[in-house]
Here is the input.
Amino acid sequence: MLLIGERINSTRKNIQDAIKNRNANLILKEATTQLAAGSKYIDINCAVTSGDEVQDIDWVVSVLQSEIKDVNICIDTPNYLAIERGLNIYKAKGSLMINSITGEDTRIKRILPLAIKYNAKLIALIMDDQGMPYTAPERFDIAKKMLERLEKEKFNMDNLYLDPLIRPVATEPHQAKEFLKSIPMIKTLGNVKTICGLSNVSFGLPDRRAINSAFLSMAIQAGLDAAILDPLDKLIISSLKASQALMGIDEYCADYIKSFREGKLI
Ligand code: THG
Here is the structure.
């Protein structure tokens, strides 16, 4: 499973402050610890600072690539100007991911050309001009239309991750189930990969990691290919490694045993 570290997100107060105060050390530490814990990409979300998002993205990308020569970056914003800046100033010897487009026409028109120009991977949220879907079949229908559009635009499907959008189970009790049902349905559409922002599922609940880790295990069984998550949470990593071993994705439990030896399990 492809892991994307969620921690450099401005909804977190210490990250918001670090971006505002240009505290490069804190940002670098968040990136290096997440990479060491197994994430391949570092998600960057600067949406909730009071400053200029374009400048903030520029600063975070610059800080990361100044110290981590092969850092892979996932630019997490609907703001195409911020996306463009992030892509444009990225000079590291790694890979870029755009998080995200939706099925909305204006967003596709603005962001897809950037993904193609910079050969970036692309997360597509499964929603359209009508808003967010509720049921698994609704997710399937939107995904189908989005794939048709992206194929028409000649996007390289190997670079695509479809996100069926998980919502908080505390307020929407059937959304986790519908999300899980949608994954195998979406996969019948072709060789497409799926992704989610794991921590969304537990908003508003106590002991969020219990919910996050149980949900990750279920999503792995459903066939999820990638996740934006907190790789420093050992309960989540334990759940991930155990679930992969149980699903036969980790032959002879080699990765599970290695993770245990490296002290990464709970
Ligand atoms: N899909 C895609 N991208 C996403 C999401 C998604 N990006 C954002 C989000 N969802 C995934 N990332 C996070 C990051 C942090 C939190 C949740 C999801 C989080 N933050 C605490 C909060 O807001 O309460 C902050 C608490 C703290 O200070 O630590 O929960 O679904 N493609």
Q: What stands out?
A: The chain has a mean pLDDT of 97. Strands lie at 2-5, 41-44, 73-76, 96-101, 121-125, 160-163, 193-197, 226-229. The pocket of (6S)-5,6,7,8-tetrahydrofolate is lined by residues 6, 9, 11-13, 45, 76, 99-100, 123, 125, 163, 196-197, 199-200, 228 (CB under 6 Å).
